[in-house]
Amino acid sequence: xxxxxxxxxxxxxxxxxxxxxxxxxxxxxxxxxxxxxxxxxxxxxxxxxxxxxxxxxxxxxxxxxxxxxxxxxxxxxxxxxxxxxxxxxxxxxxxxxxxxxxxxxxxxxxxxxxxxxxxxxxxxxxxxxxxxxxxxxxxxxxxxxxxxxxxxxxxxxxxxxxxxxxxxxxxxxxxxxxxxxxxxxxxxxxxxxxxxxxxxxxxxxxxxxxxxxxxxxxxxxxxxxxxxxxxxxxxxxxxxxxxxxxxxxxxxxx
Length: 254
Description:
This protein is of the alpha/beta class and 254 residues long. It has one domain: UDP-N-acetylmuramoyl-L-alanine:D-glutamate ligase. Helix content is 38%, strand content 23%. A 9-stranded mixed sheet has the order 3-2-1-4-5-6-7-8-9, with helices on both faces. α3 runs parallel beside α4.
């Protein structure tokens, strides 16, 4: 069993964030550790409130884990603000936690919830993306990062190239929030790879978190970034098939 770390927000309804990450790590036979960046009041219908922890306390959590446990991979989720991004980057460098770093740039949820301060985007691009082994934006997040519309396959390919040029080792650009009958995820590391699946007419709460934590688990197992991404996509597709609705809003992954 290998140890992995998630640095992300807590989801009070258990479908996304830290909770989804830890469940995914268990499914891949990983030992999961966590540093919480934010506590949310949310359910399957949306995010009602967010309380961010102080950057210093986020840093203390990372220090406690990294100074004691041999972490094989790290997944970053919701960071929320510029100062937390700065602190996380500082600790990643201090404890050399960037070897297998999966960055899920949680900025806008599939439901449209804004989850990152606008002032933090430039810091993300300059400091965090260059550390990423794998970057996993959705279409809305990619649009914010490259400052142009990203909807079509051509636009996804252009955005993936731009994000790779910013320093990301591999870009896994998720097509799940598009409108086509077929979902196409675009992978780019200097060469393009495509993963296709049939669209199911629903937004699934926590799918992005589950994907990125599955990627981190697969990297910890020794898979290459492309292999890890492809395996994680298949994992999420299987979870979607077993999804269920615990509340009045979006279904969660089974």
